Amino acid sequence: MGNSRIIIDCLRHGACEGPSSLRGRSDVALNESGVAQMERAFEYLQRPQRLITSPLRRCRDSAAQFAAGWQLSLEEDPRVAEMNFGDWDGVALATLHQRFPEQLARFWQDPYANPPPNAESVDSFSARCRDAWRGLIDFAHPHTLVVTHGGVIKRWIADVLGIDALSSAFLAALGVNYADLVRFEVNRDSEGQHWTRLVYLGPPGGAP
Fold first, then answer.
1. Who's near 141: CB < 8 A, 6+ residues apart?
2. Which of 130-134, 163-167, 195-199, 200-204 has the lowest mean pLDDT?
3. Domains within the chain, CATH numbers bracketed
4. Alpha carbon 129 to chain centroid distance?
5. Considering Cα of 180, then 9, then 149, then 164, what sign does the dihedral take?
6. Which of 12, 99, 120, 182 has CA 20 to 30 A from 1's CA?
7. Measured between alpha carbons, how far is 29 from 19 in angstroms, rounded to an integer?
8. H-helix or E-strand spanning residue 182
9. Sign of CA dihedral 163, 164, 167, 171
């Protein structure tokens, strides 16, 4: 077995309906701007061999249109859904600032130690993201596209770059905008060992 390479593209969904919030598992649709963002993204995306989406409609609706345009089957994977923010899920950030200012501040400072009430733990979220990633390392598919969420993409970036914690500082420092594309290149050597590089982050039109 010789050296081989695959590409994993991760596309964040477009802008959503409603106020700024911890959307998490809230199943909101894209707004008009978000639909236009994803339509523009499609013009630049390369047709993959495998197309995967989060089951949440802000990802799934666009991914279904991509699949139809490419005449490609679509896989839904709940492991690439956004983190569940429990009692705060879908609540406007302005409301959370007003009602729970101290708790929200502690969450931003250390989400591991201060999760929202009844939320998915950061450890659990990280574990399922890593499990999903292992499912993507499939050299039978030279090019995979995943339509997913900012939190999932940042978790994968953190792992590839060797960052231990998905800290608030990391979240603030790394910008993955609506409809941005993140490209990973996974290489495997003749002994079956593989390693991954982050090779692009930005609008789909600039991807190599």
1. 6, 48, 49, 50
2. 163-167
3. 4-85+121-206 (3.40.50.1240)
4. 9
5. negative
6. 182
7. 12
8. strand 181-188
9. positive
Place of tokens 């896989």: 75
| 8 A C-beta contact, residue 81 and residue 56 | yes
What is the band of 109 on the pLDDT scale with cuts at 50, 70, 90? confident
Contacts of residue 167, Cβ cutoff 8 Å, sequence gap at least 6 = 110, 111
For residue 92, what is the DSSP state? B
In tens, the pLDDT along 139-177 reads 889 999 999 999 999 999 999 988 865 565 666 678 899
Taking the C-alpha atoms of residue 182 and residue 146, their distance in angstroms, rounded to an integer, is 10
Contacts 24+ apart (CB under 8 A), 16-20: 16/58, 18/90, 18/92, 19/92, 19/93, 19/94, 20/92, 20/93, 20/94
Contact 151, 81 (CB under 8 A): no
Query: 136 pLDDT exceeds 60?
Result: yes
